[in-house]
Amino acid sequence: MTRTSTLDTRPLTERIDRRALREYRRGLPGEIRPPLLAAIWPAVVLAVLPIFFLSAWWLVLEDGSMPDEPLGWSALILLPYLALPVGMLVLLVRTVRRRSGVRQYRLDRFARANGLGYRPIAVPVALPGLIFTMGGTSVARDLVWRDGRSQLSVANLETTIGSGRNRKVHRWGYVALRLPVALPHIVLDAVGNNSLLHPRLPVTFTKDQRLRLEGDFDRHFALYCPRGYETDALYLFTPDIMARFIDTVAELDVEIVDDHLFLYSPKDLSTLDPEVWTWVLSVVDILTERVAQWERWRDRRLEPADAASMAASFPLIRPPRGVARQGRRLSRRTEWWWLIGLALGVYGWYLIITDAVRAITGG
Question: Which among 65, 45, 43 has a CA at the least distance from the CA of 53?
Fold first, then answer.
């Protein structure tokens, strides 16, 4: 197990052996290092377009069809064309940096130095977390993982939903920690990373599943648990654990589902910043120690009737591990605003078509 006290972050910042980097770069997949021509042609287009448009403007000016004094405020129309070379340079620098393989090389060496695995790009495994079940196409970038009893993975998830004008890309940094036992579905929506219009999480939950806790916890998190599992949530989130969550992950959304604990961030968590890695792995160390007591939790709803009567006489008999069906997933809230918008849109088109038919037929 990688402990923060023994964490070696030097590969993230130390001087790079250029020969070793070139050798490593040859093995990178095409998604990370596409062919050079495919990478630079957009920049070439941005370089050619201003030349074409400015040449056209010059011909117009030479032709005399423009006023005698074409400059002044009217010259502002040329600014977008002059901005294209700037965009070309930004795109070219960004492309070269992405193809350099420096980020992947450093993270790979960092992972090896700390007994971890690394993969620059991967299709996410079937994890039960909210951000993994949105649909669309997902890819995990800079995946760092640890096997063993306390399995751990840290990566940056990119999910693309829709296509064309409806295409939307969602990005998260996440930490996935394997728990020793399956637990009820519990979500801690961090208040600090929500916007004024909606929470950061991709789904919302019914308000009757919101559990109010004592102290300052509600100022940092909105806790949701399945109906009927309020007592179980209080057992799991004792005051000392609540204090730990406030101290360590107050800006992250937390989800407990099945035998996994997830931390979600709007920013990358697999990064070249040594301070981020020190913080992430220290959080993992703290949570691993604190949630060890969760291993003792059992769902009494799994007890058959005869076992419950036996447990009354023999208190040492415990129900099996697992979670009853009603506690495995939170109930999601249906967003009605888009249905209302769709209905209004259909009604609007109906009025337009009706008016058009009447105008044509004279009716």
Answer: 45
| Residues whose CB is less than 8 angstroms from the CB of residue 210 and which lie 6 or more positions away in sequence, other chains included | 222, 223, 224
Paired with 253 in beta bridges are: 264
User: Quick one: average pLDDT of 82-111?
Assistant: 75
For residue 222, what pLDDT band results from cuts at 50, 70 and 90? very high
Residue 351 CB contacts under 8 Å (≥ 6 apart), including other chains = none
Residue 332, both tokens: 């999601």
What mean pLDDT is reported for the chain?
Answer: 80
For 95, how many CA atoms within 13 A lie in the half-sphere containing its CB?
A: 17
DSSP 285-328: HHHHHHGGGGGG---GGG--HHHHHHHHH-TT--PPSS--GGGS
DSSP string of 89-120?
HHHHHHHHHHHT-HHHHHHHHHHHHTT-EEEE
Rg of the chain taking only CA atoms, in angstroms:
28
Indicate whether 99 pLDDT > 80.
no
Instruction: Answer yes or no: is pLDDT of 118 > 50.
Output: yes
Are residues 155 and 143 in contact, defined by beta-carbon separation less than 8 angstroms?
A: yes
Contact 113, 11 (CB under 8 A): yes
Closest C-alpha among 108, 114, 123, 144 to residue 28: 108
β-bridge partners, 172: 157
* Alpha-carbon gap, residue 232 to 259, rounded angstroms: 15
Predicted pLDDT at 211: 94
Closest CA to 94 of 165, 48, 146, 43: 43
* Confidence category of residue 193, pLDDT binned at 50, 70, 90: confident
Query: By the 8 A CB rule, do 127 and 260 touch?
Result: yes
pLDDT reading at 5 higher than 80: no
For residue 223, what are the CA distances in angstroms to 191, 212, 256? Answer: 10, 7, 11
